[in-house]
Amino acid sequence: MRKIKITAVSYLNTKPLLYGLLNSPLADQVELSLDIPSECARKLREGEVDLALTPVAILPELKKWHLVSDYCIGAVGEVKTVNIYSEVPIEEITALYLDHHSRSSVALSRVLLRDHWRITPKLLQAKEGYINQIKGNIAGVVIGDRTIGLERSFPYVYDLSLAWQSLTGLPFVFAAWVSTQSLPEAFKLAFNEALKAGIAAIPKLKLLLPSPDPSFDLETYFTSYISYNLDEAKREALHKFLSYVAALEPFHPQISRSSQPV
C-alpha cells in the first residue's frame, strides 16, 4: 500500500508530536519530511503531500481542507517563540520585518498591527540574516527556535499570541494537521493516538532532547507555552482568525535596501 506523505514543521515545538508518530505502528506507513512552516504550506497547496502540519493562514487558499487531528501547535496566552523584537516601544516603530518562515505569523502580525496596536509601520520582506537588521525603529517578527535567548538582545519583546488573546479573549492556533482529501478513518484514529502518546511522553523527551539555551526549560515550554489540544476554544479561535485574515487587504512587503532606521 502506498505510504501517506506527511510534512511537519521542523521546530522544537513539534518534537512531542513527531516522537509519538515515529514510535507508533504508523511509522512504517508514512513518508515524513520536516520543513519550515511556509514550505509545509507550499507542499500541501501544490499536492506534494497528503497531510501537513501547516500554518493555518493557508486554509483560505485551499479548495477544500480537512482538520485531521485533535492536536495542533497552539497557545493559550503567551507562546514564547512567536514575537516582535524591537529596540523601541511598539508605537515608535516605523518599519517591521516579516518572518518569511510562516504565513500564519505574518497574517497574525498584520491583524494585530491593524486592530490591536493600531499602527501602520512599513512592512519589509525578510530574508536570511534579517535579525541583524533589527535596530533603531526597525522591528522584526521572529518565530520558532531562532527566538530562543533572543529576548536578551532587545529591550522590547511583544508576544503575538498574548496580544491576540488581549484582542479576542481566545487562544491561538499557529499550525494544524490538514489534508486536502479524505484520509481513511483507521489512519486518522491511529494518527490521533500516536500524537496523544507523544504528548504524554514529554517528561521523557526533556531527558532526550538537548536544551537549545541554558535558560530554556524544555518541559515548561512544552507544557506551559505550547498548547497541543485542538479543543473547541481553539477551533473558535481558528475560525475567528480566518475571518480577520479575510478582511486584510492584499499587500506586497517592501524589500529593504538599507539597514538604517526608516
Q: Which spans of ≥5 residues are poorly predicted at pLDDT below 50?
A: 258-262
SSE order: EHEHEEEEHEEEHEHHHEHE
Mean pLDDT: 92
End-to-end Cα distance, whole Å, is: 57 Å
Key attributes of the depicted protein:
262 residues, alpha/beta, six-stranded mixed sheet, 8 helices, 33% helix, globular
Q: What this model shows, in words?
A:
This protein is of the alpha/beta class and 262 residues long. It has eight helices and twelve strands. Strands 2-1-3-10-4-11 form a six-stranded mixed beta sheet. A six-stranded mixed beta sheet has the order 9-5-8-6-7-12. Helix 3 packs across helix 4 and helix 6 packs antiparallel against helix 7. The radius of gyration is 18 Å and the shape is globular.
Note the topology:
Layout: E1 4-9, H1 15-22, E2 30-35, H2 37-45, E3 51-55, E4 66-75, E5 82-86, E6 95-98, H3 103-117, E7 122-125, E8 138-143, E9 156-159, H4 160-168, E10 172-179, H5 185-200, H6 202-208, H7 218-225, E11 227-229, H8 232-246, E12 254-255
Parallel strand pairs: 1-2, 1-3, 6-7, 6-8, 7-12
Antiparallel strand pairs: 3-10, 4-10, 4-11, 5-8, 5-9
Helix pairs in contact: 1-5, 3-4, 6-7
Short characterization:
The protein is α/β, with parallel strands linked by helices. Helix content is 33%, strand content 24%. The radius of gyration is 18 Å and the shape is globular.
